[in-house]
Design brief:
Elements: H1 2-22, E1 26-31, E2 34-41, H2 42-89
Antiparallel strand pairs: 1-2
């Protein structure tokens, strides 16, 4: 499955590169009365708008990932603390995994 994903990703990248190389016609951008008169190739416009669309996503996701990192680190520290206290409280009863018979 991993190799299939890599192959599909490479094929998709190849299709995008082929599209960009074959569409070198220049475009003039106009929107709501604004007109960009600098002739740009289509791949330049696509990359520009892709990056412009990714900026808000990255700006929102960075604080979320930082908070998730600190929360994960705190949980791991708490797990280590609980495992340490459990090891101190529970007497070792021989081999791990074997049931200890009750002597009552």
């Amino acid at each position: 499955m991993r190799y299939l994903s890599i192959v599909l990703s490479l094929l998709f990248l190849l299709a995008i590169i082929t599209f960009c190389v074959n569409n070198t016609q220049e475009f003039t951008l106009s929107f709501l009365g604004y007109r960009l008169v600098v002739p740009l190739q289509l791949w330049v416009l696509m990359v520009t708008f892709f990056v412009a669309g990714m900026v808000p996503i990255v700006m929102v996701e960075i604080p979320v990932q930082i908070a998730r990192f600190f929360r994960r680190r705190a949980v791991k520290a708490r797990i280590r603390e609980l495992e340490g206290s459990l090891a101190r409280l529970a007497p070792s009863a021989g081999e791990p995994g074997k049931e200890v018979p009750d002597k009552t």
